[in-house]
Amino acid sequence: MFQDSSFSAWPEALKVSGLGALRVGLIGTGVVGSGTCQLLARNADLIAQRVGRPIRLVMAAARDLHKAAQVVGPDVDLVSDPLALVRHPDIDVVVEVMGGVTLAKTLVLEAIAQGKHVVTANKALLAEHGSEIFAAAQTQGVIVAYEGAVAVSIPIIKALREGLAANRIYEVVGIVNGTTNFILTHMQETGMGFDAALRQATALGFAEADPSFDIEGVDAAHKTALLAAIAFGADVPFAQVHAQGITRVEAWDMVCAQALGYRIKLLGVARQRSESIEVRVHPALVPEKHLLAQVQGSMNGIWVNADAAGPTFHYGAGAGSLTTASAVVADLMDVARLASAGLSARVPYRSVQASAIQSWPLLPIGQVASRHYLRFALHERPELLTCLPGWLQSAGVEVQQWAHVRHPENVRQDALVVLTQSLTGDDLANRLKALPQMQGFAAPAAVWRVEDLNSSAM
Question: Which has more confidence, 46 or 349?
Fold first, then answer.
C-alpha cells in the first residue's frame, strides 16, 4: 500500500531548503488578518516543510496597535502607517486584507512598484481595478495572488487556472455569497419572509450590520466578474455586470417554485457565447435535483462546465476567519515556491498576460435568453386557470410547465405559476405588453429567470 512519506520522513536537513524565510507584511488585523496570523503560527512547521522555506510574519499595519499586538504576537513589528510597511526593505510580500478600494489600490500598486509580491482577499479591488493592478504586476514581474477573494475555502481559482487549464470553459455558475444563501435557505425551510430572515441572519452573525453589499448582489457580482475573467481570459468591466439582489424574493415564490421542481438561489453566472459573454448576478430557479440546489445555509457551491472535463462541482464554506486564512496562506505558499523562479513560472499564478486577454463584449441583461418563471395571482380571477395559457400562447409566450398552487392558509394567495420557453428578457417584456388588452389580465406578480444548467457543450 502506498504511503505519502514526503513530509514526515524527510531528513531534517532537507525539510527546509537553503532559501531564507519569506518575509511577510500584513495590512489589516481584523477577522481575516487574525486568522492568517493564527494559521501561520499554528502550522509553521508543516508550511515550511511543504514549500521548502519558512514563511514568517515580520510586520503588520493596523489602526489600533494595542489591539493588533494581541493578534500578531510579540515578535512582529507594528506600524500605524501601511505605506511604511509597503516600502520597508525587509518585506518580500504584502498581504492586503484591510478591505475597501481606494486606499487598498494605492497600497497594492505601491507594493508592486517596490517589487514586492502581493496576496489579497479583496474582491472589490480586483473586480474594479484588476486590469490596472495585473498590468503593473506584469511589468514588474511580481506575483498577485487572490484565492481568498472568491469562495474562500474552495480553491476555485487554482481549479480554473491549473486543474482545468487544458479545457475550454463554457460556463461558471455559482452560489458565491454565504449571507444571501443563508437567508434564502431560511426562507425555504421556515416560510419566513425576507425581512424576518435577514434579522435572523444578523442575529446569528451571518449578516453584517450593513448587509447591503450582500443582499443587493454586489459582493457576488465582484466574485463573478473575477471568475469570468479567469475562466475566459477576458477583461470584464465591472460597471457592465448586472447585479440584482434578493430583497424582492418572496417566501411564497419559493413554495411555488418548489411545486414546479425548483428552488430559488442567488446565482452568479459567467457564460461564454459565440461573440460575447454573460456576466450577471440575480435570483434564479434551479432544478431541485441539481447540486447547486442542495447548497444550503452559508455554504458556497460553484458549477463549472468545460469541453474536456465536462461538468465539475466545487463546494465549501464561503466566509470565516480561518477559512479565508486558509486561502490567504495557500497563496503565500505559492509565492514562497515561485518567488525564486523565473517570470514564466509565475505567470499561471497571476492574471492572464495582457497579450492574451480577449475583448469580449458583455451581453446586456435584457438580451440574455433563458426560460422564465411567472407567477399570477388568482384571487377573484379563477378564469385565469383556463384562459391564461391560451392568452400567453397568443402573445408568443409558450408555456412549457404550469401549476395551480394553493396557499395552505390564505386562499387570496393562490397562484398560477408557469415556466416559459427560452426568451430574452426584453422579448418577454415586449410580448407581455400585449396581454393587458385581454379581459381580466394583470401583469405577473413575480418574474424570475430559470437556470436549467444543462451539462452539454455550448
Answer: 46
Task: Give the number of other CB atoms < 10 A from CB of residue 410.
Answer: 10
Q: At 342, is the pLDDT very low, low, confident or very high (cuts 50, 70, 90)?
A: low
**What torsion do the CA atoms of 403, 406, 412, 416 make, to the nearest 10 degrees?**
0
Report the distance separating Cα 92 and Cα 116, nearest Å.
6
* Local structure of residue 273 (DSSP, 8 states): -
Give the residue among 36, 35, 142, 33 at the shortest CA–CA distance from 92.
Answer: 142
Q: What is the mean pLDDT of the chain?
A: 88
Q: Say what the pTM is.
A: 0.88
Same domain? For 171 and 310 the reply is yes
Assess if residue 302 is contained within a domain.
Answer: yes
Say yes or no: 126 and 218 in one domain: no
41 is a domain residue: yes
Whether residues 138 and 54 share a domain: the answer is: yes
CA–CA dist 257, 280 (Å, integer): 21
CATH number at residue 144: 3.40.50.720
143 and 168 belong to one structural domain: no
Instruction: Pick the range with the lowest mean pLDDT from 260-269, 367-376, 437-446.
Output: 437-446
Residue 65 has pLDDT above 80, yes or no: yes
Q: Which of 243-257, 333-347, 412-426, 435-449 has the lowest mean pLDDT?
A: 333-347
What CA dihedral angle connects 132, 138, 143 and 144, to 10 degrees?
A: 10
Q: Which candidate, 421, 425, 422, 419, places its Cα nearest to that of 365? A: 425
Are 300 and 315 in contact, with CB atoms under 8 Å apart? yes
Number of domain units in the chain: 3
Evaluate whether residue 336 is within a structural domain.
yes
What residue numbers bound the domain in which 82 lies?
Answer: 12-152+322-356
Whether residues 181 and 312 share a domain: the answer is yes
Phi-psi group of 342: left, alpha or beta (phi > 0 → left; psi -120 to 50 → alpha; rest → beta) = beta
CATH of the domain at 259: 3.30.360.10
d(CA 186, CA 197): 6
> 330, 356, 382: which is the final residue of a domain?
356
Q: Which three cell numbers stand for residue 342?
A: 523565473
If asked whether residues 83 and 209 sit together in one domain, one would say no
Residue positions annotated with a catalytic role: 223
Q: Is 303 exposed, middle or buried (0-12, 13-18, 19+ CB in 10 A)?
A: buried
DSSP alpha helices (H): ranges in 141-250?
Answer: 156-158, 178-190, 194-203, 212-215, 218-232
